[in-house]
């Protein structure tokens, strides 16, 4: 994506992506929750993108995806379809390493069960763990949220994260520029018809 | 066997009705006391429309229509929609518990020739038998209940559902303000259910070396036998005792009945012709 990075650190890239996604139209609607809940439901929009690691040892972000225009107007769902692979013409397929599947939750809700499924499905195509010059990074899904009351310049107030390789579920929040991990949990699937976590190679 | 005790997965194109359609045209009551079932009850049935004959009662059909019409425009023939936005590109799973019909809507990946889901593409509804939306959970919009596995002092586990994402405290379970909506006693085997195990002793930690936004702390590969605790701000592995042998009585009394219920099929996929084990549907909603 143009005008984004490239970054030398994944944390810098992550924390730059957060306000960028949240400032897209209707990416955060919490400010309407009480005053006009119907409008909030109708307009809420999710955006998603890959944060990836290039052969130049930089962190970059793909173009943002949202739902095609007629779809988001007519269905009640707020999903985001993130392609499995990034098309970056500078590199051959297979050269890019996928790290974070980023998206926003317009109401600041935690990750949904489909979010967990999604990143596990992605783990069939991408490495669980990426070797970088500064250590290893694990594939994960991230949902940004904002508690902002001013939709024009929403603050990045935190994110939920799930790492399939280790089953870690985390919540990070930001107050006045300081980041704090406020949750660290372990997830297990009890049952699924088509997917079981233990199947991981 | 009564069909309404079974869970069906069906993909159906429902009849359209002529009116101006808007998403969420029905305003739900959002009754948080209604908990979506965590058990498949007496079985899980995947309806393949070929070869067999099925009969659906009108209350269930109406519930399915309410859900489908709430989420999708009934007539899409004039709209240029992508495959994934269409009603017929979804599965509709339902289970009935007394007077409530629970409906789960998921993408049918094969219908559009896909192999991976879209994020936040699920939805579930609780519909009363007289046709009202009692509760609606749309991914990305509505907060779902949180299901926890908590350790009891005697080494057992108890599974509870809470309204908020705050970790429930075991000692508060009996208090009215504990935030616990329900203590789950039925076998937990509904497809896709996930349970969070809080890591004991965890206190919020400021970012710092080894703990930066985006970083991971557990070792890889994941070892399901290892449990983690925070001690003095550090994550330490604690040895686990082997889980107790499964109790033959899976109903009611054992809080963690169904825990580690084996392979996904055990839940399980039963054919309509195979009689299920004795029903243990246990009303999920009070
Ligand atoms: Zn999500």
Characterise the protein shown here.
The complex is a heterodimer of chains A (201) and B (286). Chain A is 18% helix and 28% strand. Chain A has 201 residues and is α+β, with helices and mostly antiparallel strands. Chain A has one domain (4-199). In chain A, strand 4 (129-132) and strand 5 form a beta hairpin. Chain B is mainly beta and 286 residues long. Chain B is built from 1 helix and 13 strands, in the order E-E-H-E-E-E-E-E-E-E-E-E-E-E. Chain B has a 6-stranded mixed sheet with strand order 2-1-3-4-5-6. Chain B has a 3-stranded antiparallel sheet with strand order 7-8-9, with no helix packed on it. Chain B has a two-stranded antiparallel ribbon with strand order 12-13. In chain B, strand 12 (227-231) and strand 13 form a beta hairpin. Residues 1-20 and 247-286 of chain B have low confidence and may be disordered. Chains A and B meet through helix 1, helix 2, helix 3, strand 3 and helix 4 of A and strand 10, strand 11 and strand 12 of B. Strand 9 of chain A pairs antiparallel with strand 11 (205-206) of chain B, so a sheet runs across the interface. Zinc ion sits between chains A (103, 105, 111-112, 115, 143) and B (119-120, 140).
Summarize the structure.
Chain A is 18% helix and 28% strand. By secondary structure, chain A is of the alpha+beta class.
> What does the main sheet of chain B amount to?
6 strands, mixed
Low-confidence stretches of chain A: 194-201
Assembly status: heterodimer
3D shape of chain B:
globular
Tell me the span between the first and last alpha carbons of chain B. 24 Å
| Average pLDDT taken over every residue of chain A | 88
User: Approximately how much beta-strand content do the residues of chain A carry?
Assistant: 25-35%
Average the pLDDT over all residues of chain B and give the rounded result: 75
What is the count of β-strands of chain B? 13
Largest interface: which pair?
A: A-B, 78 and 82 residues
Radius of gyration of chain B: 21 Å
Termini separation of chain A comes to 32 Å
When the domains of chain A are counted, the total is 1
> How do the helices and strands follow one another from N- to C-terminus of chain B?
EEHEEEEEEEEEEE
H-E string of chain A: HHEEHEHEEEEEE
Strand order in the sheet with the most strands of chain B: 2-1-3-4-5-6
| Secondary-structure class of chain A | alpha+beta
């Amino acid at each position: 994506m143009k005008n984004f990075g490239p970054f030398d650190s994944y944390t810098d890239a992550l924390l730059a992506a957060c306000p960028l996604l949240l400032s897209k139209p209707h990416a955060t609607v919490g400010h309407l929750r009480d005053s006009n809940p119907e409008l909030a439901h109708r307009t809420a929009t999710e955006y998603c993108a890959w944060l990836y690691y290039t052969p130049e040892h930089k962190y970059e972000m793909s173009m943002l995806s949202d739902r095609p225009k007629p779809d988001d107007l007519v269905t009640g769902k707020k999903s985001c379809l993130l392609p499995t692979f990034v098309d970056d013409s500078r590199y051959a397929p297979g050269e890019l390493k996928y790290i974070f599947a980023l998206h926003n939750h317009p109401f600041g809700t935690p990750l949904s069960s489909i979010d967990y499924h999604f990143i596990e499905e992605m783990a069939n195509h991408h490495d669980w763990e990426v070797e970088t010059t500064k250590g290893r990074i694990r594939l994960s899904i991230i949902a940004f949220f904002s508690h902002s009351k001013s939709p024009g310049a929403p603050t990045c107030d935190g994110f939920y994260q799930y790492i399939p390789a280790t089953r870690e579920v985390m919540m990070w929040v930001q107050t006045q520029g300081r980041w704090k991990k406020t949750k660290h949990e372990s997830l297990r699937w009890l049952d699924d018809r088509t997917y079981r976590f233990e199947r991981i190679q | 066997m009564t069909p309404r005790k079974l869970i069906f997965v069906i993909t159906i194109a429902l009849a359209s009705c002529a009116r101006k359609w808007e998403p969420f045209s029905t305003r739900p009551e959002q009754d948080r006391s209604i908990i979506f079932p965590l058990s498949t009850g007496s079985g899980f049935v995947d309806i393949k429309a070929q070869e067999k004959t099925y009969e659906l009662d009108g209350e269930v059909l109406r519930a399915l229509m309410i859900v489908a019409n709430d989420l999708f425009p009934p007539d899409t023939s004039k709209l240029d929609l992508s495959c994934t936005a269409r009603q017929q590109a979804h599965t509709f799973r339902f289970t009935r518990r007394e007077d409530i019909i629970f409906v789960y809507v998921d993408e049918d990946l094969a219908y559009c020739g896909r192999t991976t889901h879209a994020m936040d593409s699920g939805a579930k509804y609780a519909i009363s038998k007289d046709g009202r939306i009692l509760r609606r959970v749309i991914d990305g919009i509505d907060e779902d209940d949180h299901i926890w596995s908590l350790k009891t002092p005697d080494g057992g586990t108890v599974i509870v559902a809470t309204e908020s994402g705050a970790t429930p405290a075991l000692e508060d379970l009996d208090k009215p303000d504990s935030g616990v909506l329900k203590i789950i006693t039925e076998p937990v085997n509904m497809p896709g259910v996930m349970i969070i195990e809080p890591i004991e002793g965890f206190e919020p930690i400021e970012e710092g070396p080894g703990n930066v936004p985006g970083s991971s702390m557990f070792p890889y590969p994941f070892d399901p036998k290892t449990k983690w605790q925070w001690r003095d701000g550090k994550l330490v592995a604690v040895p686990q005792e082997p889980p107790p042998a499964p109790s033959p009585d899976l109903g009611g009394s054992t809080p963690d009945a169904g825990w580690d219920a084996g392979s996904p099929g055990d839940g399980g996929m039963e054919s309509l012709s195979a009689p299920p084990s004795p029903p243990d549907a246990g009303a999920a909603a009070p």
